[in-house]
Write a sequence for this structure.
């Protein structure tokens, strides 16, 4: 459909029309169309003042000349001369409120000021008209939100059956070649790239709140073998199928007797050990049965006398077997007997829904006869590295290459916290390669963790490809922290299923720190764990460290607890590329921004990510 698309770009601005300001928004939209609709043509581009009549005349003229899509930028706000929506409504024959509302909803994730937008979308004859904000950043963002729907909308408007069917197949995930189709993103034109990130900086707490709010907590469950259930969250209450013990059992090595007979001599009738069937002949008053711990008791036995309270009176001719014993201490009824169900009554609740399964839980499950257990489903996780410089970790390096350490570090960091992740390979810094790798990862996994490609470089393509090729919503693209500033979080629909993307920085420490701060809490929260955050304590720091950055710094440190207080020792050079700083670190110490003059007596919030050092 791209090769048939024709665009008109109308900038509405008094200052641009009068030459006071440069038309950055119109130029930016032309670049976006060039990037994402490779074979489309821009047949009209103009700048008009905030005059309703002139706007209407331009829109009508371009519609009459068969333009498929008209994008207006500017004049959608609340100022007295903002009249683009009024002019658009005067021209269109059908309004598309869903498209306007979709842009508005998406914009709320970027700025709450989106509530002041009055954008209108609609159809005149066979032309789709879309109002976009006036800022360069806002117009590109809103265009990105709706651009994947544009070819399908134009096909419907023009009753283009071939492209309607193709679009439906693509929406339903039926295109066989969708993973190999070229990306809509183009590289090059570095001079025209953004000099500042279009994404507002989010505080760490705010970023985590966005993640948890967007992803929520799962309600899906699955039945798994108890052998594989460690650290999973129970999705059901567990009830005992049988009483424990299921028979009357001895608690000691000794003799089963009838207590009423008191102390004195007994004939030893038999020997029963754990695992034997109980004696089927009732026990007489003058008899005893030698029993081991856990052995079943015969009918009539109501006490067990421990071996230490007896003496042997008579043995067999070979001296191996006891024939008669003397009970030295009078037994009492119930002495050293585990009654049926005394540990766990039948049908009683033994474990609670929402419990995190420990080794003890597994033991209980096995005891009460549950070989399978219902747990909350976990997300399938894939880890993808990006970068032309990366090679497999077991390869020999050539000039300009480095081994891919991020992926292995993240996969093992997740495993350390009981989450399994798959290796999705390495994607080169090219839009087609990134799109193909992401497409394949989305086809296999619910959550994708990428490393690299999220900063401001010309070849940092993750955000661009996510938006252009997958209609992803970037919930945030920068976080107020050091290391980890470019951290990105996005969601999208792929073949009708929701996918979650964590775009982590390429520096090794940044990737691991942001995994600890965002990914692991998200995974715990999503499977309904009550304690999904790492514990935070207050610690002093030695040696004294300053923070000259405008962002809070998350220092890797070893924390000890001694004499009632926590003390943190940093793990050496804290630059984000030095992965050695994570070795032996059990904590992240948060140093506030621009913090230079503090004493050794001050304490700082410290996130415990491992066991305390003795």
């Amino acid at each position: 459909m791209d090769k048939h698309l024709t665009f008109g770009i109308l900038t509405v601005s008094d200052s641009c029309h009068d030459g006071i300001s440069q038309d950055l928004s119109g130029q930016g939209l032309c670049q976006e169309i060039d990037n994402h609709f490779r074979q489309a043509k821009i047949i009209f581009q103009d700048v008009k003042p905030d005059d309703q009549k002139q706007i209407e005349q331009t829109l009508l003229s371009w519609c009459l000349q068969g333009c498929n899509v008209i994008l207006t930028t500017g004049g959608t706000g609340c100022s007295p001369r903002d009249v683009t929506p009024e002019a658009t409504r005067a021209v269109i024959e059908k309004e598309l409120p869903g498209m306007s509302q979709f842009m508005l909803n998406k914009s709320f994730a970027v700025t709450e000021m989106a509530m002041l937008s009055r954008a209108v979308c609609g159809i005149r004859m066979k032309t789709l008209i879309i109002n976009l904000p006036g800022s360069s950043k806002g117009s590109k963002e809103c265009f990105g939100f709706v651009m994947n729907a544009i070819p399908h909308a134009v096909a419907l408007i023009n009753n283009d059956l071939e492209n309607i069917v193709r679009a439906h197949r693509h929406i339903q995930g039926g295109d066989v070649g969708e993973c190999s189709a070229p990306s809509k993103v183009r590289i090059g034109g570095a001079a025209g790239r953004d000099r500042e990130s279009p994404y507002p900086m989010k505080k760490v707490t705010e970023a985590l709140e966005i993640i948890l709010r967007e992803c929520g907590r799962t309600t899906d469950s699955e039945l798994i073998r108890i052998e594989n259930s460690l650290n999973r969250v129970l999705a059901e209450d567990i009830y005992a199928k049988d009483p424990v013990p299921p028979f009357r059992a001895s608690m000691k090595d000794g003799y089963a007797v009838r207590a009423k007979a008191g102390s004195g001599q007994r004939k030893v009738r038999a020997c029963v050990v754990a695992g034997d069937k109980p004696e089927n002949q009732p026990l007489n008053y003058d008899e005893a049965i030698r029993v081991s711990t856990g052995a079943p008791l015969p009918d009539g036995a109501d006490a067990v006398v421990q071996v230490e309270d007896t003496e042997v009176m008579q043995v067999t001719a070979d001296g191996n077997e006891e024939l008669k014993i003397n009970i030295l201490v009078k037994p009492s009824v119930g002495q050293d007997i585990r009654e049926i169900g005394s540990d766990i009554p039948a049908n009683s609740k033994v474990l609670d829904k929402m419990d995190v399964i420990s080794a003890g839980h597994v033991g209980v499950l096995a005891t009460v006869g549950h070989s399978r257990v219902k747990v909350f489903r976990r997300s399938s996780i894939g880890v993808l590295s990006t970068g032309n410089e990366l090679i497999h970790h077991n390869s020999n390096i050539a000039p300009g290459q480095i081994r891919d350490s991020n992926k292995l570090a993240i996969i093992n960091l997740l495993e350390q916290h009981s989450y399994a992740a798959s290796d999705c390979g390495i994607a080169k810094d090219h839009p087609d390669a990134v799109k193909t790798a992401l497409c394949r990862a989305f086809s296999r996994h619910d959550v994708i963790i990428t490393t690299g490609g999220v900063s401001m470089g010309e070849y940092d393509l993750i955000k661009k490809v996510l938006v252009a090729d997958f209609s992803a919503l970037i919930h945030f693209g920068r976080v107020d922290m050091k290391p980890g500033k470019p951290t990105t979080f996005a969601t999208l629909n792929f073949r009708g299923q929701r996918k979650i993307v964590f775009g982590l920085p390429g520096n090794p420490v940044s990737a691991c720190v942001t995994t600890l701060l965002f990914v692991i809490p998200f995974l715990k929260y999503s499977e309904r764990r009550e304690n999904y955050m790492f514990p935070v304590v207050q610690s002093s720091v030695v040696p004294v460290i300053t923070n000259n950055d405008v962002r809070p710094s998350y220092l890797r440190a070893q924390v000890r607890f001694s004499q009632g207080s926590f003390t943190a020792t940093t793990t050496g050079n804290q630059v984000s590329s030095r992965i050695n700083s994570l070795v032996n670190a059990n904590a992240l110490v948060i140093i506030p921004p621009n913090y230079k003059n503090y004493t050794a007596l001050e304490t700082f919030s410290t996130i415990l990510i491992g066991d305390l050092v003795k």
Remarks:
- The radius of gyration is 36 Å.
- The chain has five domains: 2-171, 201-217+378-526, 234-243+343-375, 249-338, 536-608.
- Residues 508-526 form the longest helix (19 residues).
- The domain at 201-217+378-526 is CATH 3.40.980.10 (Molybdenum Cofactor Biosythetic Enzyme; Chain A).
